[in-house]
Write a structure and sequence with these properties.
The complex is a heterodimer of chains A (553) and B (329). With 553 residues, chain A is α/β, with parallel strands linked by helices. Among the domains of chain A are: 9-112 and 179-262, Rossmann fold (3-Layer(aba) Sandwich), CATH 3.40.50.300; 306-331 and 346-511, P-loop containing nucleotide triphosphate hydrolases (Rossmann fold, 3-Layer(aba) Sandwich), CATH 3.40.50.300. Chain A has a 6-stranded mixed β-sheet, sandwiched between helices. A 6-stranded mixed β-sheet of chain A has the order 16-17-18-13-19-20, with helices on both faces. Chain A has a 4-stranded antiparallel β-sheet with strand order 2-1-4-5, covered by helices on one side. In chain A, a hairpin with a 2-residue loop joins strand 14 (335-340) and strand 15 (343-344). Chain A is globular, with a radius of gyration of 25 Å. Chain B folds into 2 domains: 1-99 and 290-329, no CATH class; 110-289, MetI-like (MetI-like fold). Chain B is built from 15 helices and no strands. Classes of the chains: A alpha/beta (553), B mainly alpha (329). The interface between A and B is medium-sized, with 31 and 24 residues.
Chain lengths: 553, 329
């Protein structure tokens, strides 16, 4: 990352105002953002969801989604005014000189066409090169991006390729016309940490190789620290501050930026180990489970003691959520047993008594879809109060209000609202209250913070910690985010391919020696140090990160 | 592809079951209609003796369950039976050669298929093109115009459309013949010319569904990330729709096309009457009028088969158009 600000200016965004339509009104969503981008420079745009970073990224291409318009300001790309340019002029630039890499490659590749056909489309349509040349170039790019079988992989359909590989194929596609500027819109947010690092390395390499300028949009500070020369922080459509990466990391000026930096400091004090003869609240004994004939869990065992949090970590597909489904009885295991305080639970939830059901509750990842959009908050929380607590009328109302107090949402204000009238973090709090309403001993938290912004997630974690202390709850905390593990867990279970590869106290888990897979997981989590990725690659080598490293195990 | 073969077999087996149920329902329904063939054919001058005689000749005096199984046994041997009208004619006029139901239906059915084929050849490309253009220029004057035109044509009675077309294309500007009395041995060109007016009428009837489904299926996809990606690659709007949206919108479109084609085979009696087109629809209505059970049964089986096969084809095409099913991981 050298200083490139003396080079020719490629893009100038000046006092950009964007508006979004809500019902019949246009309301401002970006209120004056300006930045310059020079040739070969990478600008990181960071902020929480709703900060307007994606909208700004698209507007930098002269593009707005339906229901969004540019209300003022200018976007000038290499002398072309993109705000006022005709559709033809813009079309001629898009794909050819300005390219885009989307958040979800799986959704952004057309399912009906082979990857390489989509790759060659822009070069052929823009008359940059012929189909055969473009195909040959695609294979070379795939090889550079370290995709397996670069000669063959392009001839597959998108659904036949894994998420991390698709994301790299999309980066290759963006490179197909050797653009001057690429907009990366959260390109690794949907990926596992071990895959993310591989994609990050690939993106950084190719951007450097071809001296491409880029706008890198993300909410993850540690990621942007690896990628960007300069960082710009946005909050609710407004600029907070902008500085080169090292300055921004070492001495942020604004309070908001400082608070973002401070998020990762939350960590609970360690609890004393449970008594040796204590009966665990939940004991998973040798569970083997299958979907149809495909076995997805193999002989999984772990205990969760009263008042403690066990974090279950692993990549997607490692069987974390399946284990939760077995505990709740939604998926009766093929063999093995779940015990609640030493008493075996029936495998199928239909055979469990109401009291047994009451003891095991669940909080879901997507609070949006886990709450019935047509019921008020009072009804949503009141339902389990009535079902498990057999309370009605005033008693029920009092209990609901008590629960709302517990999740720090004033009942008078929220009890009659619909989920659509709440923010993401508030919805997740309602999810927590609904689980608490059953007065359980044990709660499964399935990626409860992964859809939330860091500050909001922090609030949820603090709430869960406080409730645990007050009510003596036990948590099974499913996550792939090791920062969350560090913040809240007492014990850690690491899963891979449906097996437990390592388990133990948090302190042991974060100190070597570990199982090689745990080591890979831990070392793949980006750190706030801008040299982290460079150092890691130097230390491990490009062949020892991501899928390649997982495959070696 | 093994799964596709399995689906086809399953569906064909289910189709046979459906045909059996249809034949039972139709047989029962026709039997429950007031009157029977004997009363219908004799009309007001029916004496109890004459009615009884005809019933005896045709076997109508026997137990309906027995008659159904007789008929079913015939069908299983490939014999659709002989129509009551033919049997009655033979009984009264002495033995001439008997026409079976199959030989009566065959030429009518081929006429119906011809009309349906001509209509489909016009209507399907036109609806797809209109739908694509309407999606491309959505909310424009063209889109609104196409919607108003197709919706008003689908909302008008078929005979009205037929007469309007006759007025403009046969009477005011005598381009096409208003009568479509085609017969065997007629040359293809002439046959096509005579079929054109009914085919145009039916095109007006079926276009709206197909066009609106094409438009809706494409527009629904326009918000998807891969369409946005295509736009951000600087691809022209027409290419975005035809290459990126249409292949993913095929399944619902194909299903609506199949339904409309089935309608063309089974539901065009009004148009046949207006243009005196000798299709299967008239034959069927006439047979129902005189309670000619073997004929009604045969027609219904043909209609049901058309629906089953066309829907099966649509399902297979939907599967084939989905690369996830065509190329499993």
């Amino acid at each position: 990352m050298t200083d490139k600000s003396h080079r020719d200016r490629l893009l100038r965004v000046c006092d950009l105002h964007l508006e979004g339509r809500s019902d019949e009104e246009w309301i401002p969503i970006v209120k004056g953002v300006s930045f310059d981008l020079h040739k070969g420079e990478v600008l990181g745009l960071i902020g929480e969801s709703g900060a307007g970073k994606s909208t700004v990224g698209l507007a930098a291409m002269g593009f707005t989604r339906d229901g969004v318009r540019i209300a003022g300001g200018s976007v000038e790309f290499d002398g072309v005014d993109l705000v006022n340019a005709s559709a033809d002029v813009k079309r001629n630039l898009l794909g050819k000189r300005i390219a885009y890499v989307a958040q979800s490659a799986a959704a952004s590749f057309n399912p009906a066409h082979k990857i390489i056909d989509q790759h060659t489309e822009a070069p052929v349509q823009h008359g940059v090169e012929g189909r055969a040349d473009s195909e040959a170039d695609a294979m070379e790019l795939y090889a550079r991006l370290r995709l397996p079988n670069p000669e063959e992989i392009g001839f597959r359909y998108p659904h036949q390729v894994s998420g991390g590989q698709l994301q790299r194929a999309m980066t290759a596609m963006a490179m197909s016309c050797r653009p001057d500027l690429i907009i990366f819109d959260e390109p690794t947010t949907a990926l596992d940490v071990t895959t993310q690092i591989e994609v990050l390395a690939a993106i950084r390499k190719i951007v450097e190789d071809f001296d491409t300028a880029a706008i890198y949009i993300t909410h993850d500070l540690a990621v942007v620290a690896q990628m960007a020369d300069r960082i710009k922080v946005l909050l609710k459509g407004e600029e907070v501050e902008e500085a080169d990466t090292r300055t921004m990391l070492s001495s942020p000026q604004q309070d908001y930026t400082k608070s973002l930096w401070a998020v990762r400091s939350f960590e609970r004090p360690a609890k004393p180990a449970p008594a040796v003869d204590a009966v665990p609240v939940i004991s998973v004994n040798g569970i083997t489970a299958a979907y149809g004939t495909v076995e997805v869990l193999h002989d999984v065992s772990f205990d969760i003691h009263a008042g403690r949090t066990v974090a279950v970590v692993g990549e997607s597909g490692s069987g974390k959520s399946t284990a939760a489904r077995c505990i709740t009885g939604l998926l009766p295991p093929v063999s093995g047993q779940i015990e609640l305080e030493g008493v075996p639970l029936p495998a199928d939830y239909r055979q469990r008594s109401r009291d047994q059901l009451r003891q095991v509750q669940m909080i879901y990842q997507m609070a949006d879809t886990a709450l019935n959009p047509r019921k008020t908050i009072g009804e949503i929380i009141g339902r389990p109060v009535q079902f498990y607590g057999r309370m009605k009328g005033k008693g029920k109302r009092a209990r609901v209000e008590e629960l709302l107090d517990a999740i720090e949402m004033p009942p008078a204000q929220y009890i009659d609202r619909l989920p659509s009238e709440l923010s993401g973090g508030q919805k997740q709090r309602v999810g927590i209250a609904r689980a608490l309403a059953a007065d359980p001993k044990f709660i499964i938290c399935d990626e409860v913070t992964s859809a939330l912004d860091q500050l909001v997630a922090e609030g949820i974690l603090r709430l869960l910690a406080r409730l645990q202390d007050e009510l003596g709850l036990s948590y099974m905390f499913i996550t792939h985010d090791l920062a969350t593990v560090r913040a809240i867990a007492d014990e850690v279970v690491v899963m891979k391919d449906g097996r437990v590869v390592e388990q133990g106290g948090k302190r042991d888990m974060f100190q070597p020696p570990h199982h090689p897979y745990t080591d890979l997981l831990l070392s793949s989590v980006p750190e706030m140090d801008p040299d982290w990725l460079t150092d890691l690659l130097a230390e491990r080598g490009v062949d020892n990160i991501g899928d390649a490293a997982v495959d070696k195990m | 592809m093994g799964s596709v073969g399995k689906i086809i077999l399953q569906r064909l087996a289910l189709g046979l079951l459906t045909l059996l149920v249809v034949s039972i329902v139709i047989f029962t329904a026709v039997n429950m209609l007031p009157g029977d063939f004997a009363e219908a054919i004799l009309g007001q001058g029916a004496t109890p003796e004459a009615v009884a005689a005809i019933r005896r000749d045709l076997g109508l005096d026997q137990n309906p369950v027995m008659r159904y199984f007789d008929w079913l046994g015939g069908v299983l041997r490939g014999d659709l039976g002989t129509s009551f009208a033919q049997l009655n004619f033979q009984a009264n006029m002495g033995a001439t050669s008997l026409q079976t139901v199959a030989s009566q239906i065959a030429p009518r059915f081929s006429n119906t298929m011809f009309l349906a084929g001509v209509t489909a050849a016009i209507a399907v490309p036109v609806s797809l093109a209109l739908g694509i253009l309407a999606a491309l220029y959505r909310n424009s004057a063209f889109d609104k115009g196409a919607n108003i035109f197709t919706l008003s044509s689908i909302s008008s009675p078929e005979f009205f459309l037929a007469y309007v077309l006759i007025l403009f294309l046969a009477v005011l500007n005598p381009i096409l013949p208003s009568l479509s009395n085609i017969y065997e041995g007629m040359g293809f060109a002439e046959r096509l010319e005579r079929t054109l007016l009914p085919a145009l009428t039916l095109t007006l009837v079926v276009t709206a569904h197909m066009m609106r489904m094409t438009r809706a299926a494409i527009i629904q996809l326009l918000a998807s990330p891969y369409i946005e990606m295509a736009r951000l690659k600087g691809i022209s709007p027409m290419r975005v729709i035809v290459r990126h949206a249409l292949p993913n919108a095929l399944a619902p479109i194909v299903n609506v096309i199949a339904l409309n084609l089935a309608y063309l085979i089974t539901g065009v009696v009004v148009v046949e009457v207006v243009f005196v087109y000798p299709g299967i629809g008239q034959l069927f209505v006439d047979a129902v009028k005189i309670r000619d059970i073997p004929m009604v049964q045969a027609c219904c089986l043909i209609f049901a088969t058309a629906y089953i096969l066309l829907n099966l084809t649509a399902d297979i095409l939907s599967i084939v158009s989905n690369p996830r099913l065509r190329h499993p991981k």
